[in-house]
């Protein structure tokens, strides 16, 4: 499937394109699908997108990948990201975060309707740039899900990351939690900056036994928080 997709009737659309050598000439560069409510889009970032009409979009999963060499410099996903600005639930893979942080050259739009934001997979350097921008540009965001936090903290750290005081996040979920000191600092930072937070759900990594889970719970409950309504659950 290549070029332009145009349909007034399609409700769910899944696009997967894996041929990096031909992405400039053959991949999808226009989506005129105003009634699509559920989009899965997996592709290498293009040098340009001509048109993206996704006005009815409720849920989107982006799995964008970076071309090597000159393709990194040329890629620009601004039009694609602008096209999904009405989305209510957005899932981003690790590679998508890297691509958007580098290749959304026109800046992020305001995601006025975005309620649920999910980051999938191991976290890389791009999250340090993209996460605060998404929080700032998503005034109605209520749920934030982060995955494999410990994989990110060996080299990078959320501590000190800019989080707008106007954020409305009520539920924060941390997946694959291993209970390291660095992870605990990351979570502590969020709890101090998210004044509207009501629920913190921490999902322990598969290797964590029940005894260790009790200790993790005790450590989390000791953390200071900005919200007096906060409840902490370790799953």
What does this structure look like?
The structure is a single chain. It contains 8 helices and 12 strands. The protein has helices spanning 23-26, 70-74, 78-83, 94-103, 126-136, 149-153, 181-193, 210-221, and strands spanning 3-6, 12-16, 28-32, 38-44, 51-53, 59-65, 89-93, 116-120, 143-147, 171-177, 199-204, 231-234. A 9-stranded parallel sheet has the order 2-4-6-7-8-9-10-11-12. Strands 1-3-5 form a 3-stranded parallel sheet. The radius of gyration is 19 Å and the shape is elongated. Residues 153-159 have low confidence and may be disordered.
What is the CATH architecture annotation? Alpha-Beta Horseshoe
Strand order of the largest sheet: 2-4-6-7-8-9-10-11-12
Number of strands: 12
CATH class categorisation = Alpha Beta
The mean pLDDT is: 87
Number of domains: 1
Query: End-to-end span in angstroms?
Result: 41 Å
Secondary structural class: alpha/beta
* Main sheet attributes: strand count, strand direction, barrel closure: 9 strands, parallel
Order of H and E elements:
EEHEEEEHHEHEHEHEHEHE
Helix share, percent: 25-40%
What would the CATH topology be? Leucine-rich repeat, LRR (right-handed beta-alpha superhelix)
């Amino acid at each position: 499937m290549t070029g332009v997709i145009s349909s007034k009737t399609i409700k769910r659309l899944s696009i997967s394109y894996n041929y990096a050598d031909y992405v400039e000439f053959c991949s999808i560069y226009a989506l005129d699908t105003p009634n699509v409510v559920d989009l899965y889009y997996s592709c290498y970032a293009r040098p340009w997108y001509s048109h993206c009409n996704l006005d009815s979009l409720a849920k989107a999963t982006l799995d964008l990948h970076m071309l090597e060499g000159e393709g990194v410099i040329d890629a620009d996903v601004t039009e694609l990201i602008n096209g999904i600005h009405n989305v209510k639930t957005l899932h981003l893979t690790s590679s998508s975060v890297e691509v958007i942080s580098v290749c959304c050259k026109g800046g992020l739009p305001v995601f006025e309707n975005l309620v649920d934001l999910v980051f999938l997979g191991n976290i890389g350097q791009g999250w340090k740039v993209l996460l605060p921008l998404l929080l700032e540009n998503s005034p109605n965001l209520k749920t934030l899900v982060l995955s494999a936090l410990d994989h990110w903290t060996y080299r990078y750290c959320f501590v000190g990351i800019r989080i707008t005081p106007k954020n409305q996040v009520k539920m924060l979920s941390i997946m694959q939690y291993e209970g390291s000191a660095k992870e605990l600092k990351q979570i502590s930072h969020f709890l101090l900056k998210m004044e509207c937070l009501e629920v913190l759900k921490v999902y322990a990594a598969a290797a964590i036994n029940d005894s260790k889970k009790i200790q993790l719970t005790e450590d989390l409950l000791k953390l200071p928080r900005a919200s007096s309504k906060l409840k902490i659950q370790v799953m």
